[in-house]
Specification:
With 476 residues, this protein is α/β, with parallel strands linked by helices. The chain has 17 helices and nine strands. The protein starts with a helix and ends in a 9-residue tail after the last helix. Its EC number is 3.1.3.48.
């Protein structure tokens, strides 16, 4: 790295780890080892969203960087993560190296991000997965706050995280499900009444989910969208089922919120929640629980939810969670307060205020249905979209992008699990022992619907092999 380039770099570990955005590929240096993930860890959008990258990508990046720092061959060289000046690549690259500091180095979110506080231009905020105008920006720091909190409350321990099971179950053809609160709340896409959906793709039916849920300790299914299957298909297998419908793309009213919290607070087992796509309405209600019972801040929760399950929390639901934060914190504090009547008049007044607390009325925007939003999101996940850098223009069939086919994954000796995406390799990639300056992307081969693995047979080997791992994804 030249003196000029070094001056532009942000030092994260003195004389050891750096981050820099460059207009050109850096020159070879005996003093510095350069690497880039711009074309190896790629977020495929639902619409105009571009990140943050999901939890498996964060995990694999941390493993890769940890290995570089421990590599004896690189002991005397600076490790430099460089990215392009593309605003989206730049934000994702910064998020990853900040995540490394939080997860591996044990820094607080504020400390991890402090080196970037005065960066110019500022990082492009992440936006939601709707196709409308962006009205809410999620920051890199918000995402770090979410990771920090998830570690603090014991949700995420990277030494126990089962990345292969996470990648398997998040795939559409394997159920499209993610733990948001490990072993308590699972978000998943709405089951299909038939083994094939309206577009001819294999689909998960309630019967396909039943054995997976039972082995994971899930005892209750909550449906938030219109009825598309007979609830008895869960009830007949010993799973409880509740309907709490509200409009697609909207925010829950006071009655829905009160019913949801009462039901889940009374349920001893884990709970699987779905709307149409398992993203907006699902993530919003789980977020209210997290704020009430675990003291989460709304912005940090949205960051965590999107890292766990990309595309979550949509449109007015974002600001709604922020507006509900104080109410949920107060409700949680009231629950945790000893039941004896408060002796201090001020405490008594506060207790009475909390008891009388009523949730604010929804705004007009929060009540409006985004007609077809769920169908659009499900379609975006099912369709194999063109991916940048791929000679075949083949993308992942999931919206959350595990990075299958990336030379980064192959180098980590953690083979991707499941079907639907080809695994490639690129000898020129720095993650495959090639030039540390190569910015490459391996081809991904798209599969037609007839070649994709189907969930019609609940005993198919690929599902049975990993089904038991759903419960242990965060405690492997």
């Amino acid at each position: 790295m030249s003196d000029r380039e070094l001056a532009e770099a942000i030092e994260l570990i003195p004389d050891r780890l750096y981050w820099v955005a460059l207009h050109t590929v850096p020159k070879t240096s005996l003093k510095s080892h350069f690497f880039s993930i711009d074309h190896d860890l790629i977020y495929e959008p639902f619409f105009a969203d571009f990140g943050p990258l999901n939890l498996s990508m964060v995990y694999r990046y941390c493993k890769m960087l940890e290995a570089k720092l421990a590599d004896a061959a690189l002991a005397d060289r600076r490790i430099v993560h460089y990215c392009s000046h593309d605003p989206k690549k730049r934000a994702n690259a910064a998020t990853l190296i900040c995540a490394f500091q939080v997860i591996v180095l044990g820094k607080s979110a504020d400390m991890a991000y402090s080196a970037f506080n005065n960066i110019y231009p500022p990082f492009l905020p992440y936006r939601d997965a709707t196709c409308g105008i962006c009205t809410y920006g999620l920051t890199v720091l918000d995402c770090m706050k979410g990771l920090e909190k998830s570690i603090e409350v014991g949700w995420f321990d990277w030494n126990k995280f089962d990345v292969e099971s996470y990648e398997f179950f998040e795939k559409v053809e394997n159920g499209d499900m993610n733990w948001i609160i490990p072993d308590k709340f699972l978000a998943f896409a709405g089951p299909c009444p038939t083994p094939t959906d309206a577009d001819g793709f294999p689909a998960f039916t309630p019967e396909d989910y039943v054995p997976i849920f039972r082995e994971a300790g899930i005892g209750l299914v909550v449906r938030l969208n219109k009825k598309q299957y007979d609830r008895r298909r869960f009830l007949d297998h010993g799973l409880k089922h509740v309907d709490l419908y509200f409009l697609d793309g909207s925010c829950p009213d006071r009655e829905i919120i009160s019913k949801f919290l009462h039901i889940v607070e009374s349920e001893p087992s884990a709970i699987a929640v779905h709307c149409k796509a398992g993203l907006g309405r699902t993530g919003t209600l789980i977020g209210l629980y997290a704020m009430k019972h675990l003291g989460w801040n709304a912005r940090a929760y949205i960051g965590w939810n999107r890292i766990c399950r990309p595309g979550s929390i949509l449109g007015p639901q974002q600001q709604f969670l922020c507006d509900m934060q104080n109410d949920m914190h107060q409700a949680g504090a009231a629950l945790r307060r000893p039941q004896a009547p408060p002796s201090d008049p001020r405490e008594q007044a506060l207790a009475q205020q909390v008891e009388r607390m009523s949730l604010r009325e929804r705004t007009q925007a929060e009540q409006i249905e985004d007609t077809g939003q769920g169908d659009r999101l499900v379609g975006a996940k099912r369709v194999i979209r063109p991916g940048p850098g791929s000679p075949t223009n083949g993308g992942s069939p999931t919206g959350s992008l595990m990075g299958h086919g990336s030379p980064l994954l192959a180098n980590l000796a953690l083979p991707p699990v499941g079907r639907g995406v080809g695994v490639g390799s690129n000898p020129g990639s720095p993650m495959n022992g090639g030039s540390p300056h190569s910015m490459s992307s391996a081809p991904v081969t798209p599969l037609s619907p007839s070649h994709r693995s189907g969930p019609q047979d609940p005993q198919r080997p690929v599902v049975s092999m990993l089904r038991k791992s759903l419960k242990g994804i965060f405690s492997h």
